[in-house]
Amino acid sequence: MVDALVIIPTYNEIENVERIIRNVFSLQRDFHILIVDDNSPDGTAAKIKELQLEYPESLFLLEREVKSGLGTAYIAGFEWALERSYAYIFEMDADFSHNPNDLIRLYNACAKGSSDIAIGSRYVTGVNVVNWPMSRVLLSWGASKYVRFITGMDIHDTTAGFICYKREVLEKINLKKIRFVGYAFQIEMKFKAHLLKFKIKEVPVIFTDRTRGASKMSKGIISEAVFGVIKMKFNSLFNRYEI
Q1: What pTM, to 2 d.p., does this model score?
Q2: Residues 107-136: pLDDT tens digits?
Q3: What CATH number does domain 4-237 carry, 3.40.640.10, 3.40.50.20, 2.60.40.790, 3.90.550.10?
Q4: Which of 66, 72, 100, 165 is 20 to 30 Å from the Cα of 110, by its Cα?
Q5: ∠ CA 100-102-105 to the nearest 5 degrees?
């Protein structure tokens, strides 16, 4: 039995999705893949269905009617995974900013090490980002420093989205109580795991910005992270934060 599932949310990733799937399936360790597609108008879901004929036992598709945010896509994927027997559940982007080869390193940190969560970290050994303008590097690095300061988490890359969770972590967190829907979702998941005393390990990776397709970053996503983190921490101090 394959014990690891990689969840990849997609919206207009027709330029990347076939390559990322084939890369994951070419690894030395076996992984299953769940694509969570938000009704991409570019035909992403149709391409997945075509590839399912080639990978009928290992490639799965969850189609959603509308684009509802990264966080809700992952929660839908988590719930799908927990209905099955996967022991290790991953988050990964479709655009090759996360190197599929690093999946094995994240897996080993949890399966062979003592970690409950393994984070593919851009900042644990400096700044390991390729092809980003300096302004975006500073924004991302500064955001992680800000979140670390506000929340008290001993994590250098608090906004990272390349992650391996042990099943027990997702079973313990009440996924229906996750409030953030954008990239701040990544912060909230880490914060709840931190409050629950799970062991979190940062595995250094090199993050390479997408070369195909369009970024989904927006000002609203950044605002959610900046102001939501303060509210999240404040509520946790007064036992008003549901984990």
Answers
A1: 0.93
A2: 999 999 999 999 999 999 999 999 999 988
A3: 3.90.550.10
A4: 72
A5: 140
